[in-house]
Amino acid sequence: MYDFDAEWLAKLDALRDQGVNPYPNGLAVTHTSTQLHAAYADVEDPSADPAGKGVTVGGRLMFRNRMGRSMFLRLQDRGEPTVPDPRDESDEPQRLGGLIQAYARREEVADEVFEQMKKLDIGDFVWVRGDVMRTRTGELTVKVSEFCLASKILVPFPDRFHSVTDVETRARQRYVDLFMNEGTRAAFRLRSRVLSFVRRFFEARDYLEVETPMMQVIPGGAAAKPFITHHNTLGMDLYLRIAPELYLKRLVVGGLERVFELNRNFRNEGISVKHNPEFTMLEFYAAWATYEDHMALSEELITSLIREVCDGQLVRSYGGRTIDFSPPWRRATYAELITEATGLEADQLADPAAMEAWWKANHPADEGPLPATRGKWWEWIFEEHVEHTLVDPTFVTAFPAEISPLARRNDDDPSLVDRFELIVNGWELANAFSELNDPVDQAARFEAQAKARAEGDEESMYFDADYVRALTYAMPPAAGEGIGIDRLVMLLTGRTSIREVILFPTLRPEQPTDG
After folding, report:
1. How many alpha carbons lie under 13 Å from residue 107 in its C-beta half-sphere?
2. Is the Cβ–Cβ distance between 142 and 128 less than 8 Å?
3. What stretch of H or E contains 442?
4. How far apart are CA 160 and CA 422, in angstroms?
5. What is the pLDDT of residue 367?
6. Where are the alpha helices (H) located in 31-110, listed in sequence order?
7. Mean pLDDT of the chain
8. pLDDT digits (tens, 9 = 90+) for 190-247
9. What pLDDT does residue 159 have?
């Protein structure tokens, strides 16, 4: 049951007693606020334009001002504030759109209609018909000839100056956050444009957009703990995908040589300002390509995205830092970066015992279980001492094979793989490699992962026999990459929490209030 406020329910009853339907249907609008502002930006007297007669607009009532027998309403709709007002000569011209003013006179809408308008609450949805005009102050306005309450609010409208600022409250009640905060609407408009741009970018390069299973018999494609669900009819457990990688590579085997997917992934891991259990990834795979080709493609994708979708400035501010996206981006090996940050030399980085001794000397309070292999030690030291220092985009290359079970071994040093991670602002933004297409090597690496899982590593991969079988049919040389869309949007919008770029992030259930 929902506990409606009795005072607000009484307002509904009063409206119905007066013959007013508080939730009518079939109210078509002819223009958005942005369309009207754009159409009349350079028109001094819109009332002389026949096309401005009898327009209809609708939106949420955000402001009302009664002046005797007249009334001004300000309505908010889906319009985007991107049209500058040419009459404003200030350094920062007013941005129009998203709001449209309506003006009503009692003599022109009838007494009973004007009385209904007087009883509106801020937050109600309103529909009006009228002629476009300008007020004496020059504001574009619809002069009302017809009015209708379109939907009745049943709660007090938030205090626009003091509420809806807490990140968790905004995430939990995104519907309120969206109509109260233009910045939130702008962030999600930009996110939509990012996704649209990505699709156009890859389609222009002959990639095919595909969809792969979100429920999988064997979770694969990443080192992560999956969510488990159950299919009643089949009587079997299924896993929400942690990555689409192994299915996308099956498509490359099948002859779809260039594929991409904008996909939702699910990982049963911790929640932080840059982690949400459900998140969006772009993954793309190309036959006859290498991880070096994907470094160039990643530079082109992200810089083109900034130029077209954002303001075009490749040097950007984020959280007090300056990030320079100007290409070419730095390329450095895993070992080089560790040596720069710690002073550990090549011979030490080849010896797990030497790295353990260094760690204990520099982290005497750390008594937890320590890594046992070279690859795990590199990963451990990199995350603690290197990753957070990489602010400008950096391609980190030459990963140890033991922490890269799906990547192709390097021809010159088979203990390493042809892989990169793109680090920006201290975050992993992308992960890519030349694909391992040797089925015998892949089977051996799956076996090593399965052994680690049996020994208690919940993030190690399962043995996927069908994927090995797919490789036995031969996969051409290929490269693949995944880019975190949520983190990319954070960087482009200046948001410091992933919750601010996901419309409905994962949250604990809301606790009931007493009384």
Report:
1. 2
2. yes
3. helix 439-454
4. 40
5. 78
6. 33-39, 106-109
7. 93
8. 999 999 999 999 999 999 999 999 999 999 888 889 999 999 999 999 999 999 999 9
9. 81
Distance CA(120)–CA(106), nearest Å, equals 15
| Bridge partner residues of 419 (DSSP) | 433
Tell me which residue of 27, 506, 5 sits closest to 277, measured CA to CA.
506
Domains of the chain (ranges, CATH numbers): 6-157 (2.40.50.140), 180-318+430-500 (3.30.930.10)
Cβ–Cβ < 8 Å for 492, 309: yes
Beta-strand relationship, 140-151 and 215-216: unpaired
Is residue 144 within 8 A of residue 102, CB to CB? The reply is yes
Helical residues (DSSP H) of 363-416, grouped into ranges? 374-385
- Looking at residue 217, the DSSP 8-state letter turns out to be S
- pLDDT tens sequence across 367-419: 788 999 999 999 999 999 999 999 999 999 999 999 999 999 999 999 999 99
Quick one: three-class SS letters along 261-285?
EEEEEECCCCCECCECCEEEEEEEE
Residue 454 in contact with residue 159, Cβ under 8 Å? no
Angstrom CA distances, 112 to 109, 209, 220, stand at 8, 56, 66
Burial of 4 by CB count in 10 Å (0-12 exposed, 13-18 middle, 19+ buried)?
exposed
Q: Where would I find the H helices in 278-391? A: 291-309, 334-342, 346-349, 352-362, 374-385
* Residue 359 binned pLDDT confidence (cut-offs 50, 70, 90): very high
431 and 481 Cβ atoms separated by less than 8 Å: yes
Burial of residue 225 (CB within 10 Å: 0-12, 13-18, 19+) is middle
Average pLDDT (484-489) is 97
- Please check whether residue 372 is in contact with residue 384, taking contact to mean a CB–CB distance below 8 angstroms: no
CA distance 463 to 442: 10
Does residue 219 have a cis peptide bond before it, meaning omega lies within 30 degrees of 0?
Answer: no
DSSP β-ladder status, 208-209 and 140-151: unpaired
Q: Tens of pLDDT along 414-472?
A: 999 999 999 999 999 999 999 999 999 999 999 998 998 888 887 788 899 999 999 99
DSSP notation for 98-126: SEEEEEEEHHHH-HHHHHHHHT--TT-EE
Can you state the angle between helices 182-203 and 485-493, rounded to 10 degrees?
130
Give the tens place of pLDDT for each residue, 249-294: 999 999 999 999 999 999 998 889 999 999 999 999 999 999 999 9
Number of CB atoms found within 10 A of residue 324's CB: 12
